Amino acid sequence: MAFSVPVFELKQVSQQFGQFSALRNISLQIYPGERVALVGSSGAGKSTLLRLLNGSVRSTRGEVWAMGRNLSQLNSKRLRQIQQQIGTIYQQLNLVDNLRVIHNVNAGHLGRWSFFKALASLMVPLEVETAVKALSQVGIAEKLYERTDRLSGGQQQRVAIARVLVQNPLVILADEPIASLDPELSREIMDLLQNLAEQADRTLVVSLHDVDFARSHCDRMIGLRQGQILFDAAPHQVSPDLIADLYRLESH
Amino acid sequence: MTVITPALKWGLIGLAAIVLSLLQAGLFRQDLFNLNGVPLLWRFIVASVHPDLSTELLQTTFSATVTTLAYAVCGTFFSVILGMIGGVLASEVWWLSFGQPSRCWLLIRAAIAVPRAIHELIWGLFFVNIWGLDPLTAIVAIAIPFGAITAKVFSEILDETPRTPLLILLNSGVSPLTAFFYSLLPQAFLNLLSYVFYRFECSIRSAAVLGIIGAGGLGYEIFLSLQSLRYEQLWTFFYALFILNGLVDLSSAWLRRRLGCSSRIDLNLQQNKSKTPQKAAQNYFILIPIALFLLTLCFWYINPDFSKFWAPRTQQLFGQFVRSALPPDFSGVPQLIPQAIETVSMSVLAIAFSAFGGLLLAFPAANNFFLPGGLLNQQGNGSLPQIMFLLSRAVLLICRAIPAPIWALVVLFVMFPGILPGAIALGLHNLGILGRLMAEVIENQDQRPLAALKAQGAPNSLIFLYGVLPLTMPRFLAYSLYRWEVCMRETVIVGLVGAGGLGRSLTEQLSSFDYQALIVTLGGFLMLTFLVDWVSANARRSLR
Amino acid sequence: MKKILFSGFLFLSLLSLGACSSTTSPDAAKPVTQKTFTTGAIPDQDPEKLQRLYSKLSKYLEAELKVPVAYKPVTDYTAAVTAFKVGDLDMVWFGGLTGVQARLQVPGAEAIAQRDIDSQFHSLFIANKKSGIQPIQNLKDLTTLKGHSFTFGSESSTSGRLMPQYFLQQAGVKLEGDFKGQAGFSKNHDATIELVTAGTYDAGVVNEQVWQKRLKEGKIDLNQVEVIWRSPAFFDYHWVMNPSVKERFGADFPQRVQATLMKLDPNVPDQKEILELFGAAKFVPTKNENYATIEQVGRAIGKIK
C-alpha cells in the first residue's frame, strides 16, 4: 500500500484565519484504503484540516495535493472534478433541511448531473433506485419521501451518509460524525462508516473526540494539538500518555 | 412520483389566481397599452438627467424633505405608543399573568384588525374632513393604522417569547405587572426595537404618500409638479426622496446591527435573531438623547395643533360627518362586486410582479452572494458583480422610494386606466420593499449546507437549485404573502389616481361627497382585506 | 462611524433650524392665524400658474381690505371643497359643480362674484389631428368619438367632466365600452391639452377659457390638436364665501369683498394683469340661484347626492 500514489499529500501547510493560525506547518500523506482518525481537542485544527482536504479552503502557505493534483493550481472546473471524488459528512449535517430526503440524497449526483437533469429531478425524482439502495444501506429506506427536517438527528446523519454513498467517492471525509449522538447510535454510525470504507476500498478520514472509537474503527491515528501534529501512528502504538498529552490543558 | 403536499396545493392555487387575474385584467382582450403616450414618457425619463437645481426649488425641496421626515418621526412616535399599549393588551400572556385565562386578548386583536385594514391615505382623507390640512391630520393618519399594525406585531412577539421566566417570577409571588416588566419585556425588547425601526422606514414612505391629499412634504410637491407636467422639478423631488429613503434605511440598518437585531421583521419563521449586542448599554446611552432631540425638533418644526383634539369644532364636524354617512346606501352593491373582483386581481398581479422582480434583484443585491468572497464567487474576481450589486440596490431603492400612486401616474402615460396599470404601479413599489427583504433573507441564510454542496464538486447553478432555492424560498414566499396583504390595502390608493378597482368607485364617491355609499364601499373593502389576510395566513402556515 | 452619524443628525437639525427661521418653509406647515383671510381655488390648471395668479390677487385684496390675505393651494377639486367645509379656506374660486357641492355642505355660504364670461361658459371638445376625428356641427355627432381614447379633466370639473358627460349622454355615448380603453381623468385642463397634443389620448374636453388663454400665449400647437366642437353655454366658475368670515371680519365683509372684486379695473396695470390671468374683462355679481341647472345636471349624473 505504501508504494502507491498518496490520495492526499500536505506539504508544509499552514492555515491562518486572520490573526489565528489554525494549522502550522503540517506535512503528511494519506494512502488509498487507509482509515485515518484525526483526534485532538476542540480548536486543534481537525475541521480545518478536513476542509483543506476537500478543497473548501485554500491553504495560506504550503501545498495540498489530492489524487495527484495540487489543489491550489486547479481552475474551478478541474477542482470540481477532484471534489466529486471526495465525499464529506459534517458534524452539523449541513443538509438542505426543507427538501425531502430523496433530494438530499440525490444531491450526491450533482457533480455529474446536467442542470436540466437536476431541475427535472426536483420535480419528479430521478434515479430513485440508487437512492433507495443507499438509504437501505444506512437502514432508513422508508424515509425516502419524508421532509428532512422531520427526521431525528441520527436519521439525518444517515441521510448525509446516504448522500455520500450516492456520490460514490474514492474518499470519505467525516467531521465529528458522532459528536451529537448517544453511544449506541455512535457505534452504529461508526460501524457503518467502517463498512462503507472497507467494502469499496475507500479511504476514510474521520475526525473524532472519542479516542476509543478511533482505536476500534481506524487503522491510523493522527493527534493534533494547537495546529500541529503531535503524533501519527497506528492505534496500538498510541499510548495513554500520548493521549493525556493531547488533551493536556495548555497554559499559554 | 409526487405527493400533493399543502405547499404544492397552495402553489397551484397561487398560479391559478395569477392566470385568472391576468384574464380579469383584460390581457389579450382589450387595448391595454397606449403607445401614443411613449413620447411623454420619454420626456419624463430624459428629465431625470437634468433635474431643476435652482436655489429657489432646492429650498422648497429641502423644507419639503424635512416636513416628510418630521411627519414620519412624529407618526412613528405615536404609533409606537399606541402599539405598546395595544400590543400588551392584545397579548395572551398579559392576561395570563393576571391569572385570568380570559379571551379579552382575542377580542382586542380582532378590534385592532379594523384600523389596520384601512390605508393611511383613507385615514388621512377622513381626518381632513375634520381637522383640515393641519399637520395633525398627517401624523394621526400614520399613527392609527401603524399603531394597530405595531400592536398586532408586538402582541405576537410577546406571545412568542419564552414564558418560563415570567411564570417563575409569578410563582414566587411577584405582582403580575412587575413580573411582566422584569421578565417578558426585557426578553422581547430587541425584537420590539427592531420592529420599531422597520416601522419608521415604512412611515417615511407613508408620509410621502400622504402628500397626495395635500398634507405637504415631498409627496405633495411631487404630485403638484407631476400635474403641471414639470418633470425637471419632479426629478429634483424624486432625488430628494431617494436620498431620504436611502439614508433612513442605511441608518436604521446600522443602528439595528449596533444593537444586535439582524432582521427587520421575522415572520414566525424561527431565525437566529439576536446576535450579541455590542456594548448595548453604551449605545442606548447615546441613542436615547439623540432620539428625544430629533423627536422634539420634528414636533417643533411641523407644529401640529393638538388643541384640535378637544376643540368643539372637531366634535361638530365629526358629528356632521357621521350624520352624512348614515344610513349606509347599499344601492351600489351590485356594481361593487365586479370591482371587488378587479381589486383582488390587481393585488394578485401586483404581488406576482413584485415577487418575481424582487427574486431577480435580491441575489445580486445581497452582499454575500455574487460579490467577491461571496458564496458563488469565492475566487473573488470581477468588477461586474460590484456594479450589479450597486445597480440592483439602486433599483430597489428607487422602486420603493417612489409612492405607488406616483408610479401609477407614470404608468398611466403609456397604459389606459384599468387594473393592469394599477397592478404594475403597486408591483413596482412593492418590488423595492420585497427585494430588499429577500436580500436580507439571503444575507442571513445559513451557509453551511451550501458549502457542503460546493465541497462535493457541485457547480454553482446546481448549488443554487438544490441549496439556495429550497432554503430561501419558503421565507421569500412568506414575505411575498405578507406583502400581498399590504398590496391589497394599497389598491385603494392607486385607485384614487384612476387605476381601477374599488379605488375608482371610492374616488367618484369622494368627489360626489356621497359618504353613504362610500361607507358601503369601504365596508366591502374591509371584507376583502380580511379575506386576503385569512388566505395569506393559511398559505403561510402551510409553508412552515 | 458613530461620530459620522451623530454629526449627520446635528447637521440635519441645524439645517432645519435654519429653514424654519428663514420663513422659506411653505404655508402648509404653519397654522394660519385667526385674523387671516384665506383664499383658495380648485386646481383646474397648472398649479404653478395658479400660485402666481393668486399671490397677485391676495396682494390686491390685502391692500384694499386691510386684512392679511393668504392663498393656500390644494391638490384636487374635492380637497378644495373639503377645506372650505372645514374652514381652512374662507373664500374659494370654485367651478360650477364644486361650488354647488360646497354650498350644500356649508349652510349660509354664498356665491358672490364671477367673471363676465362665466354666465355663458363653454366646453371645447378637442382632438389630436392624427386621430382622424373630424370637427362636428351638433351634439348628436359626438358619436364620432366612439372607438377613440378619451380623457376628461378632473372628476369634479364642470367644464371638463360634468357638462361634457351630460352632452355625451345626450348623444348616446356610453362611458363604459364606447371609448377605447377606459376614459381617463387628467386632473386639470392643462394636462388634458398636453395629453391630447402628445396623442396619449385621441380626444379630450377642456374649459374654453383655459384653451383661449393658452392659445393666446402660443402654447398650443394647432398642427397637432384642434377643436372639434363647442358646447352650448352654461354657468361655471364663481367665488363662494364662507359665512364664518362675518364673525371674524364683520357682517358686511362679503359685500366688501364683492365690491373689491368688482372694482378690479383693466386700466390699472397691476389690476389688468390679474384680470388677464383670470381671462376676464371684469368681475360681476352672481347669486346662488344661477347654479340651479348645474345642480340638476349634477344630481342626474350622480355627482351631487
From TrEMBL, chain A:
A Pfam family: ABC_tran
Sample GO molecular function, one term: ATP hydrolysis activity
GO CC aspect terms: membrane
SUPFAM superfamilies attached to this UniProt entry: P-loop containing nucleoside triphosphate hydrolases
Domain ABC transporter residue range list: 8-251
Keywords: ATP-binding, Cell membrane, Membrane, Nucleotide-binding, Phosphonate transport, Translocase, Transport
Gene3D superfamilies xref list: P-loop containing nucleotide triphosphate hydrolases
InterPro entries for the chain: AAA+_ATPase (IPR003593), ABC_transporter-like_ATP-bd (IPR003439), ABC_transporter-like_CS (IPR017871), ABC_transpr_PhnC (IPR012693), MetN_ABC_transporter-like (IPR050086), P-loop_NTPase (IPR027417)
Annotated NCBIfam families: ABC_phnC
Protein known as: Phosphonate ABC transporter ATP-binding protein
Organism: Phormidesmis priestleyi ULC007
UniProtKB/TrEMBL annotation, chain B:
Domain ABC transmembrane type-1: 65-256, 340-536
UniProt source species: Phormidesmis priestleyi ULC007
CC annotations in GO: plasma membrane
Record's protein name: Phosphate ABC transporter permease
Chief subcellular location: membrane
GO biological process: transmembrane transport
Listed InterPro entries: MetI-like, MetI-like_sf
Pfam families, per database record: BPD_transp_1
SUPFAM superfamilies registered for this protein in UniProt: MetI-like
Location in or out of the cell: Cell membrane
Organism phylogeny: Bacteria, Bacillati, Cyanobacteriota, Cyanophyceae, Leptolyngbyales
Keywords of the record: Cell membrane, Membrane, Transmembrane, Transmembrane helix, Transport
Annotated membrane topology: Multi-pass membrane protein
Gene3D superfamilies from the UniProt entry: MetI-like
Automatic annotation (TrEMBL), chain C:
Keywords: Signal
NCBIfam families: 3A0109s03R (TIGR01098), ABC_peri_selen (TIGR04553)
Signal peptide: 1-21
Similarity-based family: Belongs to the phosphate/phosphite/phosphonate binding protein family.
SUPFAM superfamilies hit by this protein: Periplasmic binding protein-like II
Pfam families per the UniProt record, alphabetical: Phosphonate-bd (PF12974)
UniProt record, GO biological process: transmembrane transport
Name this protein carries in UniProt: Putative selenate ABC transporter substrate-binding protein
GO cellular component: ATP-binding cassette (ABC) transporter complex
